[in-house]
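Students often ask why inverse folding is considered easier than folding. One informal answer: many sequences map to the same fold, so there is more than one right answer. In these notes we will look at a single instance of the problem. The structure comes first.
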């Protein structure tokens, strides 16, 4: 009897966990199943199954252009966020006491500000400096949102770095710049790699900031949103399924890469 009572909390947590998994994956499974429906509308039963919607999506020029544009924006965002994030992490690591905590809080602030508030403030900012909406504005907004994640990953790695590595490089004649590129940067490699992958995922998935800062060229989320306005169809489900599979694969690789790097 005592054993059953002791195992009750664990059983309840296990059931809650699997309930959450079901709640998370059931809608995704239904979405993916509807992408194979041999009809122009979404409804049960599915009836005949087909791959025609995927063939249509892969030949859809606006979809391919939106994918290429999203990749371009994500690449520029990742480059900018990585450089800025590593620099801020180095600054925080070398700042002791209260000011270090203040810098860390300010660096992480964009990650906790609601997306709508961040998008509105960025739109006001680009209007103030006369920056036109479009690629530059989108990259700016995505970079502001992605920098905190690079900072956290790089700073965590920096704090586990033995201080004597840089001291040994300086004793051998290396200045601060050489020591950074020869010692610190290679040590930060796993954290930078993981942070870059998450920057790509954040940028591709960012809809709110893109909506407020975008120009005439739609990114992938904007294209899907525009198509949804005309009504749901299996074609939209096929687009969403392809995006889900690609981003899921990238996310899983990022987790695997991070774990492998930490174990090393």
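Output (designed amino acids):
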């Amino acid at each position: 009897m005592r054993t059953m009572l002791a195992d009750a909390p664990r059983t309840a947590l296990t059931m809650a966990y699997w309930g959450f998994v079901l709640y998370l994956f059931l809608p995704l499974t239904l979405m993916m199943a509807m992408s194979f429906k041999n009809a122009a509308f979404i409804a049960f039963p599915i009836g005949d199954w087909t791959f025609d919607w995927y063939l249509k999506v892969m030949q859809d020029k606006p979809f391919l252009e939106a994918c290429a544009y999203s990749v371009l924006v994500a690449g520029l965002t990742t480059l900018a966020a990585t450089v800025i994030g590593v620099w801020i992490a180095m600054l925080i690591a070398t700042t002791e006491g209260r000011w270090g905590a203040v810098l860390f809080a300010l660096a992480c602030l964009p990650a906790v500000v609601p997306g709508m508030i961040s998008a509105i403030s960025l739109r006001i900012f680009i209007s103030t400096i006369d920056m036109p909406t479009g690629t530059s504005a989108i990259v700016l907004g995505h970079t502001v949102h992605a920098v905190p994640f690079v900072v956290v990953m790089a700073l965590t790695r920096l704090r586990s770095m033995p201080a004597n590595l840089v001291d040994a490089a300086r004793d051998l004649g290396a200045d601060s710049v050489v020591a950074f590129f020869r010692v610190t940067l290679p040590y930060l490699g796993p954290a930078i790699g993981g942070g870059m992958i998450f920057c790509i995922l954040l940028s591709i998935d960012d809809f709110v900031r893109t909506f407020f800062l975008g120009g005439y060229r739609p990114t992938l989320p904007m294209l899907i949103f525009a198509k949804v306005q005309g009504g749901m169809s299996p074609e939209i489900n096929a687009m969403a399924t392809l995006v889900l599979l690609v981003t899921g694969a990238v996310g899983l690789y990022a987790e695997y890469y991070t774990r492998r790097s930490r174990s090393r």
